[in-house]
Amino acid sequence: AQSVTQLDSQVPVFEEAPVELRCNYSSSVSVYLFWYVQYPNQGLQLLLKYLSGSTLVKGINGFEAEFNKSQTSFHLRKPSVHISDTAEYFCAVSRTGKLIFGQGTTLQVKP
Amino acid sequence: DVKVTQSSRYLVKRTGEKVFLECVQDMDHENMFWYRQDPGLGLRLIYFSYDVKMKEKGDIPEGYSVSREKKERFSLILESASTNQTSMYLCASQEDSDSTNYGYTFGSGTRLTVV
Question: Residues of B with CB below 8 A from A51's CB?
Fold first, then answer.
């Protein structure tokens, strides 16, 4: 069975600092991986996805993620965060077309 | 852009009531999903549908049912609401399972409180 673990429930960071949100998955087969963002009182919005090809995936709002098959990880990174990046972030893995989500990581950007 | 519309942003219902949560998408997507979102638990799949009149149980279907009479509409039904069903409910649509896109489009969510 596939599952997703987000290793940090909350990540506080100062504005303009770099950030990494960690995600590990378990799967015995090839996977498709996703990161979604949820701003307060909104639905989820796709940040980026890995389906195949280059292991470094670039998404919207300056975010990127790296697929690491040997470590079964798909960590999300941004070199310099803004206050507006404060949100909850979800990692997800596909399972026969359905997405299985991690527990979420709250990114708190402080001025 | 695909739009997924959930009819209510906030709902307050009494224990034992039958509750209907409605979701409509406007891009002819085949697949639709209902998740509930709880702090520390992420999103958990309740039910999904790959076609009209088709439904399958997700990971936590107990206490819920669904209806898909038309392709664009997927309703979640709480047969007899209980306080442990207080949660944020998110609807999503997906083009189809074979699409290389695989991405979901989410609605804005319905925050249900059962008192």
Answer: 100, 102
The answer to whether residue B100 scores a pLDDT higher than 60 is: no
Provide the sign of the torsion angle of the four alpha carbons A98, A2, B34, A92, taken in this order. negative
In this structure, chain B runs to a length of: 115
pLDDT digits (tens, 9 = 90+) for A47-79: 999 988 888 999 999 999 999 989 999 999 999
Distance CA B114, CA A52 (A): 43
CATH number at residue B59: 2.60.40.10
Q: What is the pLDDT of residue A17?
A: 97
Q: What is the pLDDT of residues B33-54, one digit of tens each?
A: 999 999 888 999 999 999 898 8
In chain B, how many domains are there? 1
Q: In this structure, what are the phi and psi dihedrals at residue B67, rounded to the nearest 5 degrees?
A: -145, 135
Residues of A in contact with B40 (CB under 8 A): 9, 103-104
Using CB atoms within 10 A of its CB, is residue B12 exposed (0-12), middle (13-18) or buried (19+)? exposed
The pLDDT of A89-101, averaged and rounded, is: 87
Is B77 near chain A, with CB under 8 Å?
no
- 3-class state of residue B85 by DSSP: helix
- The pLDDT of residue B111 is above 80: yes
Count of CB contacts below 8 A, A vs B?
54
Domains (ranges, CATH) in chain A?
3-110 (2.60.40.10)
